[in-house]
Write a structure and sequence with these properties.
heterodimer; A: mainly alpha; two-stranded antiparallel ribbon; 68% helix; 3% strand; B: alpha/beta; Rossmann fold; 23% strand; globular
Chain lengths: 367, 527
């Protein structure tokens, strides 16, 4: 008996839609087994992870937390999907996220306590997006002019950004009244994004920005010449060249846009739920967003749902820490397994699995 | 060399390989529908049919590459199930593919050794290779790297590789599609010799005169079914074509030409290094194409045609602005989009992946070349109805057959997709059209439509440049024909004086003025 992958004559649309769902189901089974191994009831664990956050009663604190977590993930993942569709590999969204957070925070720190007006927050958002875009352009320019692999350079620049953030909050921007903790002073109200509802919930206007980003992303990919270009370069590079599109310009464009969105997500996160800049801002959203982008099938609407699902695993994971006494790292394991299954299931779209009954060797495809 | 006793065609012995009611189903589509076929020793059997008729599926089943959904194969009277090509080879079936499966950076001997069982030493294989090549008059240097070889020489490797297994039945898939007429003649001598040794040959082709000349029996497929088995020597080319197509093929009519004075496309002393290390240098290529005429560029593939096409289209830029002039505008340093805006249009050789994005819809593929200058894009937004309208117009004018209004490009048959691609460009009424292999791998009906469209376009005053390996095609439509060899372009000959033989010699590297009488040149091709 033997399993073989057989290329399908046509890509299966049914499987294309079902593949993320299959991946989620397989992840749940695997994680259930993991819980059983460490001696917890899988059913109880899955209930804590997936049901409790969704059934939290009024004032819907946990539901709001899910939206808060999903906001940066969705914003970053929409940008990343543009790159990935075009076969351009920006792995450094985490760095662009941090640089955006730092650049936007600069204004918040400089105007702290001065009460200069309501223009501060919009300018912070613009600075964050700009910072992220410029930081994203570094690996793009290295690829275009020196042929450097954008996968490596974008990834390595994450660590540079991380150290930069560390320096700023431990050095020049450290809050003089902060008891030597590495953090800036809390942002003024004019430099903060307020919550949308009264009460303990933290849902903020950044989530609305994320929804707008999803819609703009969907329109751009589906309706504009630029979106067509991105899809064409990914689907058939030679045809794209014949079409007259310049891949190098596209590398710069997609890196700038995904960098800007990651940077915007960074400053929204700092000006919103966190309220100040500290090293804890580097929480891995930029990496988790890669999973979100693929789980959402590189489609902005799909990414919205994928972002909410991943956020659910975060919130559920925190609940599990308390209720089941399992380490938070289990959530990371969870997400890693999910990405693995998502990518594995993707091959089912182009291939079908067949069981060969005889135990003979498979003949080579070509003579 | 062979244990089967040679048999004369008339004294038919037992068939070598019999296909009995072979069917192959892909989903709802029947690629082969109850096909019967008997292949005898010492017989050259032609398998004729348009693209999509089911020829490739049938031979892949006979070579064990795919399994039939119904029917059975019998090898010398015994029922066999071929689970893979190695089993087919064990029985004595060899195959030469249309697309070669060779490693460019390895030598001839290394390539051959890779296809053989590892029990034999490399030295022994090299020796046997040289011996076989010599016996059959297929000269090959075992130590040469494949990338240095011409297409004809590469085909020899494939044939010798198959012969080393001493097959009783040899299957050849469109073997002459890549050869010069002289190289094809050489191949026919080899095939005649294999036949006289008692081997059976299955010869897949759509070139009717070749089949009439070479083959003892012909089986014709249409739409997955067998239409007839006949003696091609008793048929006319027209009657064979009727059986293949199932109807009459329209004759291509030449249109009255406009004035042929103003050159609309000028290539001036273009030299260009290839960006692929195995590519061809373009050396000092000059050419003028006037409005109203069709100029053909003949040549064996790999002599710089691809490089010339990308230099003309702007996918690669020329070294100087003046090297390419489109309608009076120097365009050598301009990109594809800017050249299209000047009224130029291009049809590349590869339909899938170059001319179209296979997995994208036709409307998006209309946008692929139409975004520059066809009103399909308004302020950066795609006007979807406009792209669909372009698809509809192309469909109507060029009889593109498809299952729905806007399918993915890959779902169309080769001929229909080519009609779409050519139609997409012609409907824009270009001033200059450069088209590479316009009817390569296209069925006869679609080829006639495309050639007629090119002639009509030239009749309306467009300068048309056709790069083609098909000399019959060029003879049919071109006013002047130039030949490409090793990156150089000959001076064009008028169509009337460009005989097959003359062009064939020039394709092999002979100079045009000495081509006819020069017997040395003929040897050069043979060697």
């Amino acid at each position: 008996m033997q399993l073989v992958l057989e290329r399908r004559a046509e890509r299966s649309t049914v499987v294309a839609i079902a593949s993320p769902l299959i991946a989620i189901a397989l992840t749940l089974v695997t994680i259930g087994i993991l819980f059983a191994i460490i001696g917890k009831s899988p059913i109880e664990a899955l209930r804590v992870y997936f049901v409790e956050p969704l059934t939290d009663p009024y004032p819907f604190f946990l539901q709001q937390e899910i939206a808060v977590k999903a906001t940066p993930l969705v914003m970053i993942a929409v940008g990343l999907s543009l790159c990935y569709i075009a076969n351009i590999w920006n792995i450094g969204a985490e760095g662009q996220f941090l640089v955006g957070a730092v650049c936007g925070s600069w204004l918040a720190v400089k105007t702290n306590g001065t009460d200069v007006g309501h223009w501060v927050l919009p300018v912070m958002l613009i600075l964050g997006a700009l910072g992220g875009a410029i930081y994203g352009l570094i690996p793009a320019l290295c690829r275009v002019y020196f042929g450097a692999s954008e996968i490596l350079t974008s990834l390595m620049l994450v660590y540079v950004a991380n150290l930069g953030l560390d320096y700023m909050v431990r050095g020049p921007w450290r809050d003089p009244h902060g008891l030597n903790f590495p953090t800036t002073a809390a942002f003024d109200p004019a430099a903060s994004i307020g919550t949308l509802f009264e009460g303990p919930g933290r849902l903020h206007a950044g989530s609305i920005i994320a929804l707008v980003v999803v819609m703009l992303g969907a329109v751009m990919l589906g309706r504009t010449l630029m979106g067509f270009q991105i899809r064409l370069v990914g689907a058939a590079p030679r045809a794209a060249r014949f079409s007259g599109f310049d891949t190098n310009k596209l590398v710069l464009f997609t890196f700038a846009v995904s960098g800007a969105l990651a940077g915007l997500a960074g400053i929204v996160e700092v000006a919103g739920p966190i309220g100040h800049l500290d090293p804890g801002v580097a929480s891995g959203y930029g990496f988790t967003a890669i999973i979100v982008a693929f789980l959402g099938r590189l489609n902005p609407i799909g990414i919205l749902f994928a972002g909410l699902f991943l956020a659910l695993t975060f919130i559920g994971g925190e609940g599990a820490q308390i209720a089941l006494k399992v380490p938070l790292d289990l959530t990371k394991v969870f997400q890693g397994i999910l990405l693995f299954y998502v990518l594995a299931c993707d091959s089912l779209i182009a291939y079908r699995v067949r069981l060969l009954r005889t135990a003979r060797k498979v003949a080579p495809a070509n003579a | 060399m062979l244990d089967a006793t040679p048999q004369a065609g008339s004294l038919r012995s037992e068939p070598l390989l019999s296909a009995i009611s072979i069917s192959k189903r892909y989903g709802d589509f029947l690629a082969n529908d109850g096909i019967d076929l008997d292949l005898f020793p010492a017989e050259i059997h032609a398998l004729l049919g348009e693209n999509g008729a089911g020829k490739s599926t049938l031979v892949k089943i006979m070579y064990g590459l795919i399994q039939p959904s119904g029917g059975e194969l019998r090898w010398m009277g015994r029922k066999v199930v071929l689970s893979g090509p190695s089993e087919a080879r064990k029985l004595g079936i060899g195959m030469v593919f249309q697309h070669f499966t060779l490693f460019e950076n390895l030598t001839v001997a290394e390539n051959v050794a890779l296809g053989l069982p590892p029990s034999e030493s490399f030295a022994a294989i090299s020796e046997r290779l040289e011996e076989t090549a010599r016996v059959y008059g297929l000269p090959l240097d075992p130590k040469r790297e494949v990338w240095r070889l011409s297409v004809g020489e590469r085909q020899r490797i494939e044939i010798v590789r198959a012969l080393l297994q001493n097959p009783k039945l040899l299957i050849l898939d469109e073997p002459t599609s890549v050869l010069t007429p002289q190289e094809a003649d050489l191949l026919f001598v080899v095939l005649g010799r294999l036949k006289s040794e008692g081997r059976g040959i299955l010869y897949i082709s759509h070139k009717l005169d070749e089949v009439k000349r070479l083959c003892d029996t012909a089986t014709i497929l249409r739409g997955g079914k067998k239409v007839a088995t006949c003696d091609p020597r008793q048929e006319t080319a027209a009657s064979l074509a009727r059986m293949m197509v199932g109807g009459e093929i329209g004759e291509v009519k030449s249109a009255s030409r406009g004035s042929m004075v103003q050159p609309r496309l000028i290539v001036h002393r273009l030299s260009l290094a290839p960006d692929d290390p195995h590519g061809t240098y373009l050396e000092d290529v000059s050419l003028e194409v006037c409005g109203g005429e069709i100029v053909g560029i003949a040549g064996v593939s790999g002599n710089g045609q691809d490089e010339l096409f990308s230099a003309l289209s702007g996918e690669r830029l020329a070294p100087a602005q003046g090297a390419v002039v489109i309608d009076g505008n120097a365009a050598g340093l301009l990109d594809v989009t800017e050249r299209r805006r000047m009224g130029a249009a291009f049809v590349p050789e590869e339909r899938l992946g170059h001319g179209t994005a296979p997995r994208m819809k036709l409307s998006e593929n209309a946008l692929l070349t139409g975004h520059a200058a066809s009103g399909m894009v308004k302020k950066g937004f795609i006007d979807k109805p406009a792209t669909l309208a372009h698809v509809d117009r192309t469909t109507k004018s060029f009889d593109v057959r498809k299952a729905k209004r806007d399918p993915e490009a890959v779902s169309l048959s080769g001929g229909n997709l080519q009609k779409f691609i050519v139609g997409r460009e012609i409907l824009r009424e270009p001033g200059v059209l450069v088209v590479s292999q316009p009817t390569w791998g296209v069925d006869a009906g679609a080829a006639a439509v495309i050639r007629q469209a090119l002639i009509d376009l030239a009749g309306r005053g467009t300068a048309v440049l056709v790069i083609s390996q098909d000399l019959d095609e060029l003879a049919e439509i071109a006013d002047r024909i130039a030949v490409m060899f090793h990156g150089r372009l000959s001076a064009p000959l008028n169509a009337a004086e460009a005989t097959r033989e003359k062009l064939g010699l020039m394709m092999g590297g002979a100079r045009p003025e000495r081509a006819v009488e020069d017997q040395e040149a003929k040897h050069a091709i043979g060697a």
